[in-house]
Structure formats: structure tokens, C-alpha cells
Amino acid sequence: MKIWKIPGCALGLGFLLAWPGEIFIRAQNISVTSLEALQQRTFQSEKPLIVNFWATWCKPCVEELPVFFRLCREETAKMDVVLVNMDFERHVKKVVEPFLIKKNCPCPVVRIPGSGEDAFIRKVSDSWSGALPFTIIFRGGQKIFQKEDRVTYEELIERIAF
Amino acid sequence: MLPYWRIKYRIPPFFLWLASAAIGFYTNSTAQGYAIGDALDNFTLRATDGRQVALSDFSSHRGIIVVFTCNHCPFSQMYESRIIRLARTFEPRGMPLLAINPNDSAQVPEDSFMEMVKTARRKKYPFPYLHDPTQEVARRFGAARTPHVFVARRANDKFILVYKGAVDNDPEQNKGKAAEAYVEKVAEAILNGKEDMPYSEVKAVGCTIKWRKGQN
Fold first, then answer.
1. A58 in any annotated domain
2. Is residue A104 included in any domain, yes or no?
3. Global ipTM
């Protein structure tokens, strides 16, 4: 190996180590939680909690995500927002995480074990058929709004004001 | 300790309960349809082969499987081969399957009648693939997602709903013997003359039905 190549290699290595956060290990953290834990948060909080159930394969879900992104960027003083991802487990690393990075998602994203099953859907809401997207707002542990379709920014702001 | 907003606005617990109940009532009332035990009304829809198909055309059969499905939904696509298999299994035994696409093609061009015709030909559907352009039939059934299955048994001259919900609990087909084939088991129960059904309603994830604007 030519001796003059060593500083070049060191510089290249230094570059890789200096910016890995931006280039290589930037990742969207998707935590695992339970519905009870989500609802529990709202008992003690002054802020309402908006929970949106979505998946990357669901076109209307993807189309309405900017609504939640805007709330996460602009309205965190007034409300909390959580996105519950319903993709298949095997797609989380390959599809969901790259998707969230590409979209620069500012919202917390969680997964709930068993979230596609009958018992889970009934626990969230008796009147939810299981279709996505689905959005629910909790305040003080109570459901104050739910919708099995796309929601708008104005609609959510109006519900929160109530 | 009560949250700040409840102290500030002096909101009693009863009010919260009332608001919650009102939400439940509202969402239930928009998703109502046939309940288990209800008799199905007759309907007539156009199939992809151009025929007009009526529920009453099958009045000599022991039961019927009605599947609300569509072209574009990834979950419907995932279940397509299982729906074909259900039709091939149960139609010769006296229990035909009807597939109905209720989506508004103005919102989802892949679900237009012409695209339905192409899909039915390409996949050689062994069942009538019906178009519900007014969405009247989907509303009457209370269909909410695709795929959404309704199974009815014939009693006297009527079809009585005995099951509504998912095809099975294994969308990815990776549960092996742990999978529950809901529709198959209900259809078998009907054909075996059983009174008690193994399932009556099972929810599952799916795509929302794309209702025509201003009608949902």
C-alpha cells in the first residue's frame, strides 16, 4: 500500500464517523406499547391525545398523514399525537421505517401487538369495523371523537377546541 | 386529581359519559346494516359478464356467501385466491359466492366497471363479480371495508344472515394450523344442517369502502 494513501483513508474514515447520524444510522424509532398504556396517559394529562391507526399499504392513510405531521409540528402545546402503525411485522424494517424517514415524520410512531385482531379492534371501539384509516381522540380517559375515514386538520382542531 | 381543563370548565363526569355515548351512537348509526338473524332483501346488480344477477336467482340454494371486495385494496388482493377457493369449494355443494365491488370509481379508477371486467377475465373468477355503483347494496348490508364477508343460510324463502366479518384470521397465511377459517367453518356448518354457528361476527383490518362524496 502506498504510504500517501493513508491520510486519504483516514480522512474518509473520519468523514464516515463524523456524520453517521445524518447518513447511515438515521432511523425512525418505533416503540411497542399497549392500548391501555396509551389511554392511561390521558387520565393525568390536560392535553387530549389523538391516536391514528394507519398502514403504508393504505392509500388514504398515507394521504392524510401530513395532517398529523402538521399537528405534531405546530400544536404540541395543545395536544399529543400518536401514530399506531398496522403494517405486517415483516414490513416494519424494510418498508415502514424507510417510509417514515423519507417523509421526515415528526410524530411518535408505535406498534401494538395483536393490533390487527378482532379483540383489539373491539377494545379500541365497538363501532370500528377494522377499516383503515381510523382516528380516535381521548381526553381525560374518555373517547371524545372517532372517525373511520380520512380526517382533516380543521376537523381535528375543531374537535380539540370542543 | 382532575385534569386542569376539567377543573377550569367545571365539566362533570356525566357530561363526558354523555359525549362518549353520543359518539358511539353516531358512529354506530352510520355503520348500521343487517344484524345477525336478519333476512336479506333482494338486490339486482350487473356482473362483469354483462348479466343482471339477483339474490333471488339463488333461492333454491342452501346458503350464500356475499363478499364485498375490490380491485385496488391490498387486503382484497391478498385474499383473492382464498375467495376463489371458497367459491370453487362451496358453489358445487349448493352455496354460491357473490363478490360485490362497492367502491366509488371516481375516487379509485382501478375499481371502475371496465377494470373489474379485466380483473375477472384475467383471474378467471368462478363467481359473479358485481358492480354496486349506487352503493345501495353495500349500505343495506352495512359493509364497511374490503374484504367484508356476509354468509346467509336459506330458511323457507329467505336468506337469513348468520355471519359477517373476516374470511379468516391469517391474512399473511403464516399461522399454519393455528389459523381460523371463519367463512369456511360457517359454510360447512350450514351445509351440515347445524343450527349453532361457530362464529357470528369477527372484525379484521381492511380498506375503507370509498363512499361517493357527500354520501357518508
1. yes
2. yes
3. 0.81
